[in-house]
Write a structure and sequence with these properties.
The structure holds 2 protein chains of 2 kinds. In chain A, helix 4 (101-129) runs antiparallel to helix 5 (134-154), helix 4 (101-129) packs antiparallel against helix 14 (355-365) and helix 6 (176-199) packs antiparallel against helix 11 (262-284). Chain A has a single domain (52-372), classed as Cytochrome-c3 Hydrogenase, chain B. Chain A has helices at 56-60, 65-72, 80-95, 101-129, 134-154, 176-199, 202-208, 216-221, 226-230, 238-241, 262-284, 338-344, 346-350, 355-365, 369-372; strands at residues 16-20, 32-38, 41-48, 163-164, 167-168, 305-312, 317-324, 332-336. In chain A, a hairpin with a 2-residue loop joins strand 2 and strand 3 (41-48). Chain A starts with 15 loop residues before the first strand and ends with a helix. Chain A has a 3-stranded antiparallel β-sheet with strand order 1-2-3. A 3-stranded antiparallel β-sheet of chain A has the order 6-7-8. By secondary structure, chain A is α+β, with helices and mostly antiparallel strands. Chain B is of the alpha/beta class. In chain B, the strands form 2 sheets. A 5-stranded mixed β-sheet of chain B has the order 1-2-5-4-3. A two-stranded parallel ribbon of chain B has the order 6-7. In chain B, strand 1 and strand 2 (62-66) form a beta hairpin. The relative contact order of chain B is 0.13. Classes of the chains: A alpha+beta, B alpha/beta. The interface between A and B is large, with 39 and 34 residues.
Chain lengths: 374, 188
Amino acid sequence: MKEFIEIDKDFKTEPYQINMGPQHPATHGVLNLLLTIDGEIIKKVEPDLGYIHRSIEKMCERDSYQQIVHLTDRMDYLSANINNEAVCLTVEKALQLEIPDRVKVIRTIIGELTRISSHCLWWGVMGMDVGALTTYFYGFRDREMLNDIFEETCGARLTMNYNVPGGLMYDIHPNFVGRVKKFIDHFKTKIPEYDRLLSENVIFQKRTKGVGILSKEDAISFGVSGPVGRASGYSCDVRKYHPYSAFDRVDFNEVLRTEGDTFARYQVRIQELWESLYVVEQLIDNIPEGEYRVKTNAVIKLPKGEFYQKVETARGELGVYIISTGTKNPYRLKFRSPGFSNLSALNHMAVGSKIGDLVAIMATLDLVIPDIDR
Amino acid sequence: MMTNQELQNLIGSWFPNPEATEVTSETKENPEVTEQTEAQSKPSQPINKSLLEFTDEGSEFLNITVQPEHLYRLMGQLRSNEQTCFDYLFCLTGMDWEPELGVVYHLESTVNRHAIVVKVKTSDRENPNFDSVWDIWRTAEFHEREVFDFFGIKFNNHPNLKRLFLTENWEGFPLRKDYVDDVNMVIM
């Protein structure tokens, strides 16, 4: 008794535009994507930015160098400590300050713990984006331990402000080493759990394998960096090529994949958790004794010139470009943020796939919107 | 990997001076900078100074200032030449040098692992424009839109040059030094 409705032969489809965001769960912040779609196939993705732009670069022009450090953890708040470090390293480079080994090692440890914390959050949210809510709680459970460690030593859980030009704000807490070791032991049993829960899940693999492929040539041309670039076989780890702090004395592997799809980006980040743990493990028993801070002038004046320093945040290459005229403020300060360049490749990766795939692609790009809207 | 001096010699040879007999003497506006650079920045063969100039900004990179009309040619050559092979544009910065406006390009080679800085300047504040490099490095498409948004510098042949962060009807260009900010109440 079924009656089929005959489709009108003259019925035509045409591309139309829809808005994804600015309040969409998959955008992880306030980002508006203007999608041109034909049916469910994406023809074009046009990001509309600026919902939370605070013009940090302009604010830097009126602030002293100590103040600028505090603005930077409002950019990529998940790698707050690494952002702080980037500005401090640039200022120290300009002043040609000799930084004690103790500072370098502590900065590296906390930087790598920040990376783990950021990847934990990403892993939880990644699962949630593709429909596995459980991962969110697992990821946040382990991240909580790290936040407690940060709170004890740095005084804050997220926006740490622990670095100052010349060293650290204060020395590490006496409990720090013990708690970090405890975390390493704990987390080593948890990464295999992550794999069992999500990485080996067939539905998850079907949703991510072969989706949003980015070739190596395109990755370089789009200025993509971090895990996104490394999943395309593009060796771009700043810690390897331009080692800063204590990265020249530790042993770790740069995780590379060649597939360039969403699943490869996922695997790179999971593998980076192991590598970061390994780096922390090497350093945690060997924190050198010494000063935790070099004295600097109360008003820091950089010499005339241009200074550039890059670091590897959890998202990729962060560059700090200071142009100084010899005064206490920078004449111009530019942040080369990893998220902004990674986002520029989104249109290229998403064209031809479905809207559901776009959510998976966005999740492995690991965008933090304040990093894009500086 | 090429050293800064090798890069300078090579790039200088792309812009030969038609009058080869002319002695290259440093004639810079800023006497301080000249003193520092005189020793290093003498190219091995005379280059055409009106097109290209090497400067020292106290950074680890080799700095080149190029005339706007030769920007695209230089960039294309930097990208395609096998010895230089600058395939990674890692930073594109808009600048207001007062009174000049300009753009700074940071380039790196992922093959040879050397880096370079290219600068381009114009004193036209009303209608500044440079050639777009988006077809050499795709990432420039976004970065150039950002520069257009905050500095009002136009890029010729850009596929989609419109405001990126600010709304279409925003007046003025906030990152210029002469921008008057009468909306912000917290001016220090």
